[in-house]
Amino acid sequence: MYRISRATTDYIKRYTITPAGHCETFLTIKNVPRPRSLPILGTKLDFFLAGRGTMLHEYIDARHKLLGSIFCEKLNGNTDLVFISDPTVMKTLFLNREGKYPAHILPDPWVLYEKLYGFKRGLFFMDGEEWLNNRRIMNKHLLRENTESWLEGPIKRTIDNFIAKWKGRAANGCVVLDIESELYKLSTDVIIKVLLGTNSSTFESRHYEELVTIFSNSVKKIFQTTTKLYGLPLNLCQRLNLKVWTDFKESVDSSVFLARKIVNEILLGRHETNGLIKKLSDENMDDETIRKIAADFVIAAGDTTAYTTLWTLLMLFENGEVLKELRRKDGLYVKYVIKESMRLYPVAPFLTRILPKDCFLGPYKLKQGTPIVASIYTSGRDEQNFSNANVFLPYRWDKNDPRKENLSNHVPSASLPFALGARSCIGKKIAMIQLMEVIQQVSNNFQLKFNNIKNIRPITSQVLVPNKHIELCLTLRNYNEKE
Ligand code: HEM
């Protein structure tokens, strides 16, 4: 099922395939549709006008609408990027074309930081055999069947504490919260407790709370400062020591320092713990590799899970009927609510892979090294993949729900919030346990009211985030309230 533009269909008619199945001439990257561009400048101006990348998801969505499900654009650099949004082509990429060591495009500021300071990062930044060996060990403890049985303990305990604190704060009436910071802190706390396990008293002090607050603020700053560097000449900013670069560098320095400090403390007391660090240590993973991988987890966990929680709560606030249904039902409905919110607001709106060898993708023969970008935001909102695509309808994920009959289009593989294949998110089970627990408990225990959400829109700031600061007015739910 290739949804290709009219221009591509014409090419296909022109380039025939012989009965023996041999392609006489095939389509190449030169035939991939591309937007009109200016000499020398290319489409750089369009890109700048679209907010230097902050509206990239909408910019690319508009391109797909114009050019079809496969198109090519250089964006701000000199390399052709091939954008795809067809679910079949995306599946082919992740399951058959990415090779043994799937490679993705790393954010430029991070690459420069690593080069300048010789600092080695975790799983997301590894490649080749190093990545595969470590990934296999991580898969065993985080993704295999039944890993939920050890993950649920530390995660649910952390969320119970979080909800108890919120209840205490809202005990005397409405309390206004900086919801982003609250959720960042929660996600950081959850991942530290996963590293630590359930049978330890390490970090049970007031200082721990302060540490989590300082750490999550500093991680939040990394994402803000990276976004400011979008589209700027990075090497020049660094050589001139401009504030955009030094702000980025300082936020990375302090986040990495603190993340390693946390991991070091767990490593020191590992024999009393039963969490992920103890498990990796028992696999004979060396301490430096544990430090790299675990410190990155603490950094990676914050924004993705925090913003997915925030988008889901916003969707529930705006869709009162769904919130009522969630409070009435237990079990899997909360999972459908989260899947639906990730379909509309995938925190990673683009996924990238670099082709390991020459291969066909859709009708095009592409060369080794070609960067491919899967437009997850577009595929999740395409009417051909999901009927009533822009409406928040969690029941579309429930195959037993009779209302589903009205939704003729449903292509699950068009919504890939955690990616697919060997390099998909290693933290997806952690994230799903956390999301399901926190969304269900917040909905059951509190009334939700957000301030300042008129005309709220998503922007790309590394991940998909709201375009303005949001406050949550938290009130304890009156269980007798009529629903
Ligand atoms: C809602 C929450 C989350 C979402 C939507 C999400 C999404 C993703 C996606 C799409 C990728 C794949 C990137 C690619 O293919 O290039 C990824 C990779 C990764 N994620 Fe997550 N993530 C989430 C939570 C977490 C958490 C809680 C952790 C911490 C354990 C985590 C750690 C990682 C790591 C280390 C990788 C790199 C894996 C590798 O390269 O082998 N993620 N995530």
Automatic annotation (TrEMBL):
Cofactor section: heme
This protein's UniProt keywords: Heme, Iron, Metal-binding, Monooxygenase, Oxidoreductase
Gene Ontology cellular-component terms listed: mitochondrial inner membrane
InterPro entries xrefs: CYP11_CYP27_families (IPR050479), Cyt_P450 (IPR001128), Cyt_P450_E_grp-I (IPR002401), Cyt_P450_sf (IPR036396)
GO molecular function: heme binding; iron ion binding; monooxygenase activity; oxidoreductase activity, acting on paired donors, with incorporation or reduction of molecular oxygen
A GO biological-process term: cellular response to peptide hormone stimulus
Residues noted as binding heme in the record, renumbered to the chain: C425
Keyword Signal: no
Pfam annotation, one family: p450
Lineage top rank: taxon: Eukaryota
Keyword Transmembrane assigned: no
Family according to the record: Belongs to the cytochrome P450 family.
Protein name: Cytochrome P450
Taxonomic lineage from the root: Eukaryota, Metazoa, Ecdysozoa, Arthropoda, Hexapoda
